[in-house]
Amino acid sequence: MNQSQITYWCHEVIRSQSRQGGYYIDATMGNGNDTLFLCELAGDDGHVLAFDIQEEALCTTRELLQSHGYEKRATLVKDGHEHMDRYAEQELADVICFNFGYLPGGDHEIATKLQTSIVAVEKGLQILKSSGMMSLCIYSGGDTGFEEKEGILTYLKELPAKKYTVIVNEYYNRGNHPPMPVFIFKK
Ligand SMILES: C[S@@+](CC[C@H](N)C(=O)[O-])C[C@H]1O[C@@H](n2cnc3c(N)ncnc32)[C@H](O)[C@@H]1O
């Protein structure tokens, strides 16, 4: 994987905060690449809870996990991440991963939306353990527009510094609205 790609960068930071036997949440399953990565980190003793609203995403991810023998490491949930508190209790997760936007190769209309994304991040921060981390890949421009990115950044700016460290990264010299990797560390 290209080391300057957003996925590579987010995975490396997540890896640095991970532990075998940990509890991981993939809030946007998509084609399952992040779920697979989190299953590798979790090991046989850990677990991954993954969400998507599209059946197609669950099917692709299930097949991907099966091809690696990891199907027992993950629970795939067909529900919006804004309901993640129905499936996970507070202070449970070591890492929560969001990769916003639409399913690559799928319908661009079925994408994450500001209103539900904010609820999901808010609930995710409650579900995150102290000293856990949340990774966000935020996209903008094109079919995605700017509302979600701007709304999430405004929300993150208001998070209390005593409780959270928010690090917003930028592809500084790249045009065409590059993706934005964000990391939140819970104290
Ligand atoms: C960019 S893709 C995720 C990529 C994925 N992590 C991967 O490794 O392939 C974004 C996904 O978010 C899903 N999504 C949209 N709204 C959602 C919601 N409210 N809850 C959970 N997933 C949602 C879309 O269906 C889409 O599959």
What report would you give on this structure?
- This protein has helices at residues 6-16, 33-42, 55-67, 114-127, 147-157; strands spanning 23-26, 47-52, 74-78, 93-99, 128-138, 164-168, 180-186.
- It is an alpha/beta fold and 187 residues long.
- It has a seven-stranded mixed sheet with strand order 3-2-1-4-5-7-6, sandwiched between helices.
- Helix 3 links the parallel strand 2 (47-52) and strand 3.
- The model has no long low-confidence stretch (mean pLDDT 96).
Descriptive tags:
187 residues; alpha/beta; seven-stranded mixed beta sheet; 7 strands; binds S-adenosylmethionine
Produce a short descriptive summary.
The protein has 187 residues and is α/β, with parallel strands linked by helices. The protein is built from five helices and seven strands.
Helices and strands in order:
Elements lengths: L5 H11 L6 E4 L6 H10 L4 E6 L2 H13 L6 E5 L14 E7 L14 H14 E11 L8 H11 L6 E5 L11 E7 L1
Parallel strand pairs: 1-2, 1-4, 2-3, 4-5
Antiparallel strand pairs: 5-7, 6-7
Helix pairs in contact: 4-5
The structure holds S-adenosylmethionine.
What form results from the Cα inertia axes?
A: globular
Strand adjacency order, main sheet: 3-2-1-4-5-7-6
Sheet with most strands: 7 strands, mixed
Bound molecules: S-adenosylmethionine
Low-confidence stretches: none
How much of the sequence lies in strands comes to 15-25%
Overall helicity: 25-40%
Radius of gyration: 15 Å
**Strand segment tally:** 7
H and E order: HEHEHEEHEHEE
The average pLDDT score comes to 96
Number of helices: 5
